[in-house]
């Protein structure tokens, strides 16, 4: 369908060339995701100024509400000292620790078991659900130094490598919820890892999209994207020689930022020590720019990396997506999967860049 | 991928038969969407009792905040009297009116115009964005009588038929946001219609899923679903001879309800007068059960119907999805597209049924 529309509109290119520039400033845009073919709307008619987004409900509000009884501040409080999987830097002077979630969405078991009912199919939620907790209750990732952020990525990689070959694990999701509106139920900064038996439907869209782009263009779609962004400099938030942070052309939310390695690689878990430091620099700067620009908003970030189901995904390209909770997805978004954003990614990137 | 996993687990069926029943009560379930192949998690380990959901932020809170200056109470206040497209029952004693959104996400224009940039593709957001407003500021759909609800569906159908053949329109989205958490910025009850040039990605998933199910099983997947639900009676909320309301097996949120015609039809706009009354009865009862059970929660509902792009979709089956905002989708859901629900749909349906 997307392709058809593309051709339909392309054939009208000449006649519209004149009015294009004028219209571009007054009318909403339907932007197509280069990878999945999905659509987003940049609704200029409902546009907000970048400054207005800073009046969102603050993540800070939840930061201070439970320091007295915080389960994440001291390992003893969770009653899970013996279950800790990783301590960095050391057990005594820990700066980060990893342990299993006490209330897991996925729990240990050898293989997923079939649970059929009539025409439906289900299986047991077999897998792993772990928490990656940094020490300081108040210092969230945007405020940490590069070494601290690199340590977090280090822990992600350690646990990824430890779990990726387990029998029930075909996909590993690593994500972070910051602030109540982003679904964080505990204020103390923590990331989560879920190792699960099924491939995420959204990753599947990106896998299929990048494979089909490769077949047509003999190029990785993410490489095309990061090279174009570095060159065009319209949506760059920050970059160094190995990583680039930019607001995607078809952003699903205002101030969305993607952090992408410039070198092609499908697999986050193969990142080197040197790359990790470079990633930490770009990632922390991107997060800090959002923190400053939107006055500590709620946000989620997550790593999109290839599945670990034993297959190769040479056309995929891992990256991190940071999604500030700047919008409430309503009926239209939930029905259609087309998100409406009220700021142009170019304007958002420009505003973010100024904060660094 | 989904099919592969299905086979993998199916072959282990015999050995697991014994432990199945016991495990089913203690461990999360990964349920597969019969249509799209997507997954949801029913996280029993994090389960809440149905009564706990009634403590969500109330939609009521916003109901009373702007009656004095409500733009939707009287046509004069919008300054759009001359733009009104439909008055029901009459202009003077109107019970419902339809008019263009003053701040449209999609705006009128003959054909979408191409807006390319480097490797990216976009087009102008050409289309129609209309509001369907019922008269009483306080009486939302769950509290209306069947005749009032049927009138709303009547207006949906009228506008659908008026717009479906316009040049720039390939898909029509009809939806309703109730309460602040569901994205309603105006408290006065109103539905929205957006007629747009592109096919919604979520509808595309359902179109593809239902087509592929038809090819394998020579049956409509939605017919299979509604017949099974009516027979099994495990997830029924309410039904009459023509429509059924049930909590879907792979619910994406607690207390999600689908309302589906029992007779196969891809196209909502072909509904008859008699069917409309039957639909209104089942739909109003379903909505009322959610209103009572969760103490007037925020919710969205929307119609999933076949595109109007001139093609036939004989394997599709229109239906309405009601999604109470019982959960905050966090990093995991946003990353993977796998939703975590904390109540079994069977328990939710049972609780809803008792409210009617």
Report on this model:
The structure is a homodimer of 356-residue chains. With 356 residues, the first copy, chain A, is an alpha+beta fold. Chain A has 2 domains: 2-13 and 28-58 and 201-353, HIT family, subunit A, CATH 3.30.428.10; 74-196, 2-Layer Sandwich (HIT family, subunit A). Helices cover 31% and strands 20% of the residues of chain A. Chain A contains 10 helices and 14 strands. Chain A has helices spanning 2-10, 13-24, 60-63, 75-78, 146-163, 201-217, 221-232, 273-293, 331-336, 345-353, and strands at 29-32, 39-42, 86-88, 96-100, 121-124, 128-134, 171-178, 190-196, 236-239, 243-246, 257-261, 299-304, 319-324, 339-341. The first copy, chain A, has a 10-stranded antiparallel β-sheet, with helices on both faces. In chain A, strand 3 and strand 4 (96-100) form a beta hairpin. In chain A, helix 5 crosses helix 8 (273-293). Chain A is globular, with a radius of gyration of 21 Å. In chain A, 53% of the residues are buried. Strand 5 of chain A pairs antiparallel with strand 1 (29-32) of chain B.
Beta strand % of chain A: 15-25%
Order of helices and strands of chain A: HHEEHHEEEEHEEHHEEEHEEHEH
Write the CATH homologous superfamily of the largest domain in chain A: HIT-like
Structural class of chain A: alpha+beta
Architecture of the largest domain in chain A, CATH level 2?
2-Layer Sandwich
CATH class of the largest domain in chain A: Alpha Beta
- Rg estimate of chain A, integer Å: 21 Å
Briefly note the CATH topology name of the largest domain in chain A. Answer: HIT family, subunit A
Envelope shape of chain A: globular
What's the oligomerization state? homodimer
Strand count of chain A: 14
Helix content of chain A: 25-40%
Number of domains of chain A: 2
């Amino acid at each position: 369908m997307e392709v058809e529309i593309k051709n339909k509109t392309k054939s009208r290119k000449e006649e519209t060339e004149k009015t294009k520039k004028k219209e571009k400033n007054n009318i909403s845009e339907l932007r197509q995701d280069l990878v999945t073919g999905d659509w987003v709307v940049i609704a200029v008619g409902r546009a907000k100024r970048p400054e207005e987004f800073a009046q969102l409900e603050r993540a800070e509000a939840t930061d201070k509400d439970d320091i007295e009884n915080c389960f994440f501040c001291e390992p003893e409080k969770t009653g899970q000292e013996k279950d800790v999987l990783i301590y960095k830097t050391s057990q005594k002077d820990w700066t980060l620790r990893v342990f299993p979630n006490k209330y897991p969405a996925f729990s240990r078991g050898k293989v997923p078991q079939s649970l059929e009912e009539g025409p439906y199919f289900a299986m047991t939620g077999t897998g792993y659900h772990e928490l990656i907790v940094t020490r300081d209750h108040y210092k969230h990732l945007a405020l940490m130094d590069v070494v601290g952020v690199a340590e977090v990525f280090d822990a992600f990689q350690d646990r990824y490598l430890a779990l990726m070959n387990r029998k029930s694990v075909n996909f590993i999701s690593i994500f972070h919820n910051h602030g109540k509106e982003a679904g964080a139920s505990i204020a103390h900064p923590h990331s989560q890892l879920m190792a699960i038996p099924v491939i995420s439907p959204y990753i599947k869209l990106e896998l299929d999209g990048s494979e089909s782009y490769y077949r047509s263009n003999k190029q990785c779609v993410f490489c095309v994207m990061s090279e174009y962004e570095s060159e065009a400099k319209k949506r760059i938030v920050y970059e160094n020689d190995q990583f680039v942070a930019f607001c995607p052309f078809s952003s699903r939310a205002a101030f969305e930022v993607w952090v992408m390695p410039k070198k092609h690689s499908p697999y986050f878990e193969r990142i080197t020590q040197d790359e990790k430091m470079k990633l930490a620099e770009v990632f922390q700067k991107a997060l800090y720019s959002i923190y400053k620009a939107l006055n500590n908003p709620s946000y989620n970030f997550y790593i999109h990396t290839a599945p670990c189901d034993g297959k190769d995904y040479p056309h995929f390209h891992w990256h991190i997506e940071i999604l500030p909770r700047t919008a409430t997805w309503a009926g239209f978004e939930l029905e259609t999967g087309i998100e409406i954003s009220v700021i142009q990614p170019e304007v958002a990137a420009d505003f973010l860049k100024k904060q660094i």
